[in-house]
Specification:
Length: 691
């Protein structure tokens, strides 16, 4: 029996962990990130349980629970509360006794901390786990996509995408590239891992009969996928995930014919979904397109490094290793994983000795007991046996770790491998309780500190890079000159974990990625030099002679650009637009890869010369350049939409505000311009209160 759970949690990594865990159990999951939208979704959807974080933007979780309990259907709804800060007995008592919660779970939590109370609560009504999504066998020698019909949920953008994929595929098949073959010989996870190792940028065409998909990669990371299957359109994904009903989907398509707005925006207007759930749905659509390929038993593939990357707003959040793991977990059936794992059972497993592979970001869902056993002293068969993890789940994880090169296999035991820890390993101890928290029942805003902003992170990384530039190779690793090989290796692994590229891959700012990459490069250079006897001897001789190697970098230029940008922001706040434009222009001249510099320059230029055609055209060009650099930043779309609105191009303006909302569901300017507030959502949703 299907059960729907509403998760109200503002931390994206926890959202994803809960979503994946619950969906694998067979639940339908709705996600919201703040109390206002959480309450609105609860009022307008049929849910069987609410998981509520204590610390939320605006109202805290206890205040939202109080509001839920005051509604007629909220009086008896089961609620589970989670918190990483408020761990005292008084908070647990209030949750369980005063508000009737079924559980109060502390972060970081294990899967059983959440699932055990749900099993007890639902009993015989607990849903069945979802089977692996295996692609159907071809009909004859091909597997054609279903043709669109009047009953199809495909909107025009999906039909346009299908035509684009067909056209692009016909051009790509004429190219001969190094990465090409058949998925029967090289399964899709291994193809992804190969592209990741090469850090390749381009497009991978995969085809099976008449089904064609194009997976786009940037520096080895999958970022987007296009498909010629109209069954993977947004509407079908939303209906399949239980996020909207068929009636709501059909109504949104009907309204689209009389509007210039996209289906997602119309669904928000209807009250069917919230802006955050639209972002979640778009991510689910991407996942559906990608993970379907993992289940293909065969098909042709070839990589085109010359393909243009799309300006995608919604992209894959996970690392290549995480996506490989999720694809195998979701798409491999029992027979296939047993076939893949059988040859591995006799081999000993240990963490990879290369930190770039060893510390890739990968999160597990209940297999925590297996990872510490991968220490080089046990075979795969022994690891699975002693872990206590379900055999099939364990085989899938081991296979994913092997494909992603996180672990290495050998015929004999492996000595001194070091612990296996991924880049996303949770902290051993929870953060301390803030001093003097407010009484939780008072109508006050949450005391949760704001998340670390990208600007603060950028400044911290820049400062760290500047410090490392002034240090010698020993100092970079925090070592004395007499340090031994084991100390050098241990120090390197610690810093490699901290500055692993996977930690910063999801950042919008190109400066953050560049700074992290430079720090990782400096640390790796120090290790490579000091761990090689000849290179270390030569370097020691240089130090003794007083020679300093040139550790020059772009950090000074980045810091100067950031200083100009901050000065420009001050002028912009004071409406000194010409001065602001000059500062932003200097910032982009100093560091042209940062999209915000172009966007703010374009907006200030337009505001300093309103109505002037040449300046307006240059402003639009600059903002479009910002979008090409950072499609996931909302500000360029807001600026562009505002320009189009002021110049009388309302349809273009709305399109840009919709993109801003897709990039950031909390974008206040876009919500106001599109008139998408929670109150309006409740007013417009009465007809769809029941699915």
């Amino acid at each position: 029996m299907t059960k729907t759970i509403l998760v109200v949690e503002d931390e994206k990594s926890v959202q994803k962990l809960l979503k994946d865990m619950l969906e694998e159990e067979g639940f339908t999951v709705l996600l919201e990130k703040d109390g206002k939208w959480g309450l609105s979704t609860f009022e307008n959807r049929d849910v069987d349980l609410v998981i509520m974080d204590v610390l939320l933007p605006g109202q805290n979780g206890f205040q939202v629970v109080e509001s839920i309990r005051q509604t007629s259907k909220g009086k008896t709804i089961p609620i589970m509360m989670i918190s990483g800060v408020y761990r005292g007995p008084e908070h647990k008592r209030e949750a369980l006794e005063d508000w009737g919660c079924v559980a109060y779970v502390h972060k970081p939590f294990k899967s059983e901390d959440v699932l055990a109370p749900l099993r007890e609560l639902f009993g015989e009504d607990y849903p069945e786990p979802r089977p692996a999504a295996v692609s159907p066998p071809p009909t004859g020698d091909e597997a054609p996509p279903p043709p669109p019909t009047e009953d199809d949920y495909a909107d025009q953008s999906s039909l346009d995408e299908r035509a684009e994929v067909e056209t692009t595929a016909s051009r790509m098949v004429m190219k001969v590239e190094a990465i090409k073959g058949n998925l029967r010989a090289t399964p899709f996870p291994e193809v992804m891992a190969q592209i990741s190792r090469l850090k390749a940028t381009g497009a991978l065409l995969v085809s099976w009969g008449k089904i064609k998909k194009i997976v786009f990669f940037e520096d080895g990371r999958p970022i987007f996928v296009k498909s010629n299957l109209t069954s993977e359109c947004l509407g079908r994904v939303l209906v399949k995930e239980g996020m909207i009903s068929e009636a709501e989907c059909e109504e949104s398509l009907r309204l689209m014919k009389h509007s210039d707005r996209k289906q997602g925006t119309i669904l928000i207007e209807m009250g069917a979904i919230s802006p955050h759930n639209l972002g979640f749905a778009l991510e689910k659509q991407l996942e559906a397109k990608l993970f379907d390929i993992f289940g293909w038993p065969e098909g042709e593939y070839q990589f085109n490094p010359n393909a243009n990357l799309p300006q995608a707003i919604t992209t894959f959040e996970g690392s290549p290793a995480q996506l490989i793991w999720e694809g195998i977990r979701r798409s491999y059936d029992d027979a296939r994983i047993r076939k893949e794992a059988a040859p591995l059972m006799k081999y000993y497993a240990a963490p990879s000795r290369d930190p770039l592979y060893r510390y890739q970001d990968i999160q597990t869902l209940g297999e925590e007991k297996l990872l510490p056993l991968i220490d080089g002293s046990r075979t795969i068969a022994q690891i699975i046996k002693f872990s206590g993890v379900d055999e099939i789940r364990a085989m899938k994880l081991i296979h994913a770790l092997k494909v992603a090169d996180i672990i290495t296999l050998a015929a004999d035991p492996i000595t001194d491998p070091g612990p296996l820890m991924t880049a996303s390993s949770p902290a051993a101890e929870p953060p301390p309780l803030p001093a003097g928290p407010p009484p939780l029942r008072k109508r006050e805003s949450s005391s949760q500190p704001p998340p670390l902003g990208e600007r603060v992170l950028r400044e911290r990384l820049a400062q760290r890079a500047m410090e490392l530039r002034r240090k010698n190779l020993y100092q970079i690793l925090g070592l004395k000159r007499e340090a031994g090989e084991a100390e050098i290796r241990r120090a390197y692994f610690e810093q490699a974990k901290e500055f692993h590229p996977d930690r910063y891959a999801s950042a919008v700012s190109s400066e953050i990625k560049a700074l992290a990459a430079e720090i990782y490069g400096l640390v790796t250079k120090a290790y490579e030099t000091l761990s090689d006897h000849a290179a270390r001897a030569a370097y020691d001789a240089e130090l003794d002679s007083g020679i300093r190697r040139d550790m020059a970098s772009d950090v000074s230029r980045m810091l100067a650009a950031e200083g100009q940008f901050q000065q420009g922001e001050m002028y912009l706040r004071n409406e000194e637009f010409a001065k602001a434009a000059n500062c932003f222009n200097e910032a982009r001249n100093l560091y042209a890869d940062e999209g915000d510099y172009h966007a703010y320059y374009g907006w200030s230029l337009y505001k300093s010369h309103p109505g002037e055609k040449a300046s307006t055209a240059e402003a639009i060009r600059a903002i479009n350049e910002a979008i090409s650099l950072n499609p996931r930043s909302d500000k360029p779309y807001v600026f562009l939409g505002s320009i189009y609105k002021e110049t009388g191009e309302a349809e273009k303006a709305n399109q840009q505000f919709e993109k801003a909302l897709q990039a950031n569901p909390d974008c206040v300017e876009a919500l106001l311009e599109l008139k998408l507030d929670a109150g309006q959502r409740r007013r417009q949703s009465n007809i769809f209160r029941k699915r």
